[in-house]
Design a protein that fits this description.
The protein is an all-alpha fold and 334 residues long. It has one domain. The chain is 83% helix and 0% strand.
Length: 334
């Protein structure tokens, strides 16, 4: 339980703030949002753990402390306000006032920005999925089809080619007035992934070769930034979906803060306990869940997909990967 001590402290603090803001009902809604965030983000925790285990303890601590501030206040409160401000032309303070005092209008503006949010987040997550599937250095394959897909990874920039091709197909499926927004936002998601991933790989190579002073710090910083962008991509749909439960942005922030904190604690727990090594296919299941989430986000630009489908599909894939890992372990021991 030591890994979750801070999460329980944050939860207690959020419960107090929720009560002061909206009474007992505020506590209930915050807890519901927290549970929803945790259930939808387990795959996020697993993928985070696969990156975090390559970081030193100092950057792991930054991820659990400063990273949570970025995740909660930055991505789940300030960034949606920035999106609404950019989409409507209303100043940042004006949107902030709207979020606090006219939540219905704020929720409407945020929902109107769904195409850009889904395109950006969906394409970034799709790149995460493709990069794992086509990784030629990956030695463990969950299914035989993975071995064939890895051979495709020898093609230069296969992930970018497939992602952009899919984006072009999907944007043609959208209403004409949404196509440009989807295309620009989706391309930006791909570009951002390539930039962050390339810089992280560059600094990791320097670290291994001791080619540059301060490379270890830079590698940790780029991995930290990568995790924050990944978390942002996961959080976009959650923020919009939370408005289906309540339009109180303060309660939404508090509820999602609880979930985000537990996801981070779970990430550190997976790293400390070596769970990814024990359950050999768990990382695979998480990446397939991310792939499903990416497709759902892209499809949601035209068709609404209930959050329960998103959550259950990801949970099913992760559960199956754990089951497969157990069978593999028993086969190796026999």
């Amino acid at each position: 339980m030591e890994h979750f001590r801070l999460s329980f402290i944050v939860t207690a603090l959020c419960m107090v703030l929720a009560f002061l803001w909206a009474g007992p009902f505020g506590i209930f809604i915050a807890l519901v949002l927290g549970v929803l965030e945790i259930s939808l983000s387990f795959d996020n925790a697993v993928v985070n753990a696969s990156v975090l285990k390559r970081m030193d303890e100092r950057w792991q601590w930054y991820f659990l402390t400063w990273g949570i501030l970025v995740a909660v206040f930055g991505m789940r409160l300030l960034f949606p306000i920035v999106i609404v401000s950019a989409a409507t032309g209303i100043g940042f303070m004006g949107v902030t006032d709207m979020a606090l005092n006219d939540t219905a209008a704020y929720a409407q503006h945020l929902a109107a920005s769904h195409t850009q949010i889904a395109a950006f987040g969906g394409m970034f997550l799709l790149m995460v999925f493709f990069s794992f599937i086509f990784d030629v250095e990956k030695e463990v394959h969950w299914r035989k089809i993975e071995e064939k897909l890895v051979s495709w990874g020898k093609l230069e920039s296969i992930e970018v080619i497939l992602a952009l091709s899919l984006l072009l197909l999907i944007q043609n499926w959208l209403p004409e007035e949404q196509r440009l927004d989807a295309l620009v936002s989706g391309v930006f998601g791909v570009v951002l992934y390539v930039i962050v991933d390339s810089l992280a790989a560059l600094f990791e190579d320097e670290e291994e070769g001791k080619a540059a002073s301060g490379s270890i710090k830079k590698a940790g910083m780029m991995s930290f930034l990568y995790l924050e962008v990944l978390d942002a991509s996961f959080s976009f749909d959650g923020v919009i979906g939370a408005f289906a439960i309540t339009q109180d942005v303060v309660i939404i922030m508090l509820g999602l803060a609880i979930g985000a904190m537990f996801v981070r604690s779970l990430t550190v727990f997976l790293v400390r306990k070596g769970t990814l090594d024990e359950y050999i296919y768990l990382e695979h299941g998480a990446h397939y869940a991310i792939g499903i989430l990416a497709f759902i986000m892209l499809i949601s630009m035209r068709i609404h997909v209930p959050e329960v489908i998103t959550g259950l599909s990801g949970a099913a894939l992760i559960a199956f990967s754990v089951y497969s890992s157990i069978l593999y372990k028993k086969a190796q021991e026999s």
